[in-house]
Structures are given as C-alpha cells and as structure tokens.
From TrEMBL:
<keyword id="KW-0819">tRNA processing</keyword>
<comment type="pathway">
    <text>tRNA modification; N(7)-methylguanine-tRNA biosynthesis.</text>
</comment>
<dbReference type="GO" id="GO:0008176">
    <property type="term" value="F:tRNA (guanine(46)-N7)-methyltransferase activity"/>
</dbReference>
<dbReference type="Pfam" id="PF02390">
    <property type="entry name" value="Methyltransf_4"/>
</dbReference>
<keyword id="KW-0949">S-adenosyl-L-methionine</keyword>
<feature type="binding site">
    <location>
        <position position="154"/>
    </location>
    <ligand>
        <name>substrate</name>
    </ligand>
</feature>
<dbReference type="InterPro" id="IPR055361">
    <property type="entry name" value="tRNA_methyltr_TrmB_bact"/>
</dbReference>
<comment type="function">
    <text>Catalyzes the formation of N(7)-methylguanine at position 46 (m7G46) in tRNA.</text>
</comment>
<feature type="binding site">
    <location>
        <position position="118"/>
    </location>
    <ligand>
        <name>S-adenosyl-L-methionine</name>
    </ligand>
</feature>
<comment type="similarity">
    <text>Belongs to the class I-like SAM-binding methyltransferase superfamily. TrmB family.</text>
</comment>
<dbReference type="InterPro" id="IPR003358">
    <property type="entry name" value="tRNA_(Gua-N-7)_MeTrfase_Trmb"/>
</dbReference>
<protein>
    <recommendedName>
        <fullName>tRNA (guanine-N(7)-)-methyltransferase</fullName>
        <ecNumber>2.1.1.33</ecNumber>
    </recommendedName>
</protein>
<feature type="binding site">
    <location>
        <position position="122"/>
    </location>
    <ligand>
        <name>substrate</name>
    </ligand>
</feature>
<feature type="binding site">
    <location>
        <position position="96"/>
    </location>
    <ligand>
        <name>S-adenosyl-L-methionine</name>
    </ligand>
</feature>
<feature type="binding site">
    <location>
        <position position="44"/>
    </location>
    <ligand>
        <name>S-adenosyl-L-methionine</name>
    </ligand>
</feature>
<keyword id="KW-0808">Transferase</keyword>
<dbReference type="InterPro" id="IPR029063">
    <property type="entry name" value="SAM-dependent_MTases_sf"/>
</dbReference>
Length: 213
C-alpha cells in the first residue's frame, strides 16, 4: 500500500501535546510522570491507524499504552481518533523501533505488541523484520526479566521465521494459534489489517513469547 504523505500531520500532532510526545527521550525512566500513575506500560510497535491500541486502552483502563509508529502521516490518524474520543492512558510516538532504548529504561515497558508487521519477504531484507534478533535484543533491553512479546500476523512465512528467530534467541512460547479467529478469544482486539484479512478468509497467526535469560 502506498503511503499518502500528509505535510500537515506533524504540526497537527504537536498541537495535541497531551497525546503526542514530540521528544520522548526526555521521559526515559520517568514515564510515570507523564501518565501520572505507576500502571504498567504496554507498547505497540507499528500501530497503524490505532484500532488495536485504542481498543486495548478502553478494555484495560489500568494499563498505560504507547503507540509506536514510524510514519507521521499514519500516526496522525491515532491522534485524530483520540481528539474525537479522549483516552488518558494512551500516548503516541513517531520513532524508529531500533531506537527504543533511547526512550525507555530497562523494565520500564511491561509488554511489547507486534501486530501485522511488514513481512519484508526477501531474504536480503530479513534484518528489517521487527522479529529479527537485533530487534529482539532491543525489546529485551526495555522489558523486565521474563518480559513478553505478543505477535499477530496474516503472513505464515513471517510467522514461521519469527518462531525460528525467537527460538534461536532463547525465547519460549506460552501460547500460539494458527487460526486465531477459528476460536477467537473474547478479549481479542482486532487491528484494521486483521479485520480486512479475516474478511478475506485469511487465517490469523498469533503467539505469546517470553524472554528466558
């Protein structure tokens, strides 16, 4: 899908300073001051237009959620959603996932969600996958001991390669489904892509993986 550039997006988001954090590095180690509580923080890396993160925030008001989206022209949709329907437990960042250690200290993030990440199907692009070992190392640096990654995708090859990289990294798998919607948990919050692919009859793959080091 071609990304439509929105030159006004950054200025608009900066005007919503209670939602969009323009310089998250200033909050490293002190996100509790931003949320004004000590509730656990869950982040979604690659939040798209925000259906998942806003849905989760409504379902779990005692958890703080941070949407991580690289592209301002995409992230602005999340901010717009929250202007229309405010959620005190959500913040939005436009940063690169490889730099997460610059914004969170060890253990400051309680869980990482990866939903419908770009599969980067060519072998030469494997290092760009959000489940590649270098990204796994980055998440480990901001999660507590035995922290978890929750992962969903419609792409079987990405799912299989992610199983391999996580297993090679020493992670264990606590829960897994090769067809999530065949027996969908009541608390499952669907993403925009999830709705689309499910409507086409595409199975949705999901797993929960835990760091064991």
């Amino acid at each position: 899908m071609r990304l439509r550039h929105k030159p006004w997006a950054l200025d608009y988001m900066k005007e919503q300073s209670s939602i969009y954090i323009a310089d998250p590095s200033t909050l490293k180690g002190n996100w509790s001051s931003e949320f004004k509580n000590t509730n656990p923080i869950f982040i979604e890396v690659g939040s798209g237009k925000g259906a998942f993160i806003t849905g989760m925030a409504k379902q779990y008001p005692d958890v703080n959620f941070i949407a991580i989206e690289l592209f301002e022209s995409v992230a602005v949709a999340i901010v717009q959603k929250m202007v229309e329907e405010p959620l005190e437990n959500v913040r939005v960042l436009t940063v690169d996932a490889k730099d997460l250690r610059d914004f969170f200290k060890k253990g400051e993030v309680a869980r990482v969600y990866l939903n419908f990440s770009d599969p980067w199907p060519k072998s030469r692009h494997a290092k760009r996958r959000l489940t590649y070992k270098t990204f796994l190392a980055t998440y480990e640096e901001i999660l507590p001991k035995n922290g978890q990654i929750h992962f969903k995708t419609d792409n079987r090859k990405l799912f299989e390669s992610s199983l391999m990289t996580m297993s090679a990294y020493g992670m264990t798998f606590d829960w897994m489904s090769l067809d999530l919607h065949a027996n969908e948990p009541e608390n499952n919050v669907r993403t925009e892509y999830e709705e689309r692919f499910s409507a086409l009859g595409q199975p949705i793959y999901r797993m929960e993986a835990t760091y064991t080091n």
